[in-house]
Amino acid sequence: MDELIRRLRGLPKGSLVCQGGIIPLPELVREKGGPPFRPMVALWAEPESRSVHCGGFLSAGDDVLRAALETLGEFVQEVFDNEVCPGCLEVRDPTLAEYLRNQLADACIEVRVADELSGFDQAAAELCSLVESRSSGPPGMMSARGMTVDRLRSFADAAATFYRAAPWRYLADVDLIQIESPKAPRGMAFCVVLGAGGCEFGLGLYPSRDRFEQFLRAAHEPVRDASLGAGLSHVTFEALNDLPIDDAALWIEHQLPAAGERAYPIVLKHLVPGKTKRPSSQELTFLEGLFRSLAAASEEEIDSGRFRKEITTHDGAIAFTLALPDLLAPPSPRQWMDRGFVPDRRSHERMFADVERYFQEHPTAEGDIGEVLNRLFTGRSLDNPLTQPRTSAEQARELCFLAVDTRGRRRVQLARQALQLDPQCADALVVLAEVAGTLDERLAYYRQAMEAGQKTLGQKFFSENVGHFWGISSSRPYMRARFGLAESLAATGRIDEAIEHYQELLRLNPNDNQGVRYVLLPKLMSTGRDVEAARLLKQFDEETANWTYARALLAFRLSGNSKAANRELREALRVNAHVLPLLTSDEPVPQPQRYSLGSFEEACCCVEELRPAFQATPGALDWVDEIWQQREKVLDKLRREKRRKQRAQQKKRKRK
């Protein structure tokens, strides 16, 4: 600093007037993993020549006055080549002016405070515009008429309360909630709680039940109409960095409450595709009340289908009455299908249960079974069973058949009713595991379900029916529970325990109707259990991408870049050539819902499952990349030869 002041003192003073100051930038930055902050920069401008210079990012803890003086020194050096120094400095901030006067007391530079700084203001506006264009987004919450920091603080507190209460533990995004009172703002008469899937948390708001069901159907279509979002609103919880810049600045500068690092609320109203706006002050207070009402609702109140909450908002006390139409009048399986949901495959077991009950009541000679099945059961609707459940266990399972073809909170209610009838109902416990809010809860439910199925079947059943478990409908709940337990253990990183369950499932059902082999194989490969993997590959000899590429990798592990390994890899390429370039790519691999053999979609699933095993094998990725490059060279040569022959034939035809 002393050197800078000595340099400014020694330079000749011109008649130039420079304008400067400190400006906040419209963006957030984060340094060294610390909290994000809104940076400032020191900026100087010389209006006559339109010369401008700004310094680096400054945080709230930096000495901004010193930075302004240092940036002035950089301005003199870069713009005036240290040949002349401005004779007058104009700033708007009296504190900055006093600092500059003290530091430049002997430099013969006049410092004055001025309200009009046209050159500086224009440069600052252009800089902020440049930054905003680089980080475009919706306007801030304070852009709405009548919005105040106090109103926003009250909303933020309600949002934090909602997030901590986690109502997605009880409600899924298909559980439509009708706000019966107070009168909702336009487009906000219905809502759903987001978060049951563990990805996006918050509220989705809809103008009507029809629009909600239209949105549900569109979610199951391959291409969604972008205009469907027009008129809808949502509140989601994001990280501070993901908020619009003005919102983030408000949370930082006013220390508004938030429930966690990824729990800052953002409210958006969708207009036409690509355009959004922020809520009005009245809408924000309505959302505040809705958040507080949902946060205060107990599980019992939710299950009642309608509840009332007296809460206090920024604008005073309000009574909210919320109803869940699907609990008050549960939809039929047909109505769920009309909303776009595909029936669960488990519901077809309802027919098997009906058949078993019939033959228990009407024993038939073995030769007559086919005739009876064709006459009485072929074409019969699942909703019109020939027999009725007799025991409490059968009644409980009947409720589970209804539960799997139901969505949302009603599914939980049916599963719990089934457990009241039969505490050992494995399928009911599986349903509760599937909707559990945490991995620990899921593990506990699946383990209970497996133990309940084990107890219901009995030791004798296990010894007599090994190898045929899936063919007996009464053992399927146990098989589902054990498979779910294995998947949950794998999700927690307990791979060896999961493998034991997968292998036992295959012992009980070698036909593998559940597809256990497809999740077991990559786990055996990635954990180096090559002998067991080879045994599994031999047990299920099939031409799929997973199987052929796993064989190639096993061959490479045994013999390196050998003839045997290359032969297996060429066979894998024949089965699906899309796998190799995906394996060696750094790009994320999409995960399709379905695929056909030999397709790009099959390759994506194969890479997702086998890439860890390839990565865990030294040299494997280099090997497959080398083979792929060799293949491409050969194909390129063949393509060039084909084009050469085509050109020769064309010339020959022209000569004729």
Structural summary, described in words:
By secondary structure, the protein is an alpha+beta fold. Helix 19 packs antiparallel against helix 20. Strand 4 (85-91), helix 3 and strand 5 form a beta-alpha-beta unit. The strands form two sheets. It has an eight-stranded antiparallel β-sheet. A five-stranded mixed β-sheet has the order 3-2-1-4-5, with helices on both faces. The chain is globular. The mean pLDDT is 88. Among the domains are: 2-134, 2-Layer Sandwich (Nucleotidyltransferase, domain 5), CATH 3.30.420.230; 141-328, no CATH class; 539-656, no CATH class. The chain is built from 27 helices and 13 strands.
Features:
globular, 12% strand, 5-stranded mixed β-sheet, 27 helices, alpha+beta, Nucleotidyltransferase, domain 5, 656 residues, 8-stranded antiparallel β-sheet
Please write out the topology.
Blueprint: H1 2-10, E1 13-24, E2 40-46, E3 51-54, H2 64-80, E4 85-91, H3 94-103, E5 110-113, H4 118-134, H5 149-165, E6 177-181, E7 190-194, E8 202-206, H6 209-219, E9 233-238, H7 245-253, E10 264-270, E11 276-277, H8 281-296, H9 299-304, E12 306-313, E13 316-323, H10 325-328, H11 333-338, H12 349-361, H13 369-377, H14 392-404, H15 409-421, H16 426-434, H17 439-457, H18 459-465, H19 476-491, H20 495-508, H21 516-526, H22 530-539, H23 545-559, H24 563-575, H25 579-583, H26 600-615, H27 620-655
Parallel strand pairs: 1-4, 4-5
Antiparallel strand pairs: 1-2, 2-3, 6-7, 6-13, 7-8, 8-9, 9-10, 10-11, 12-13
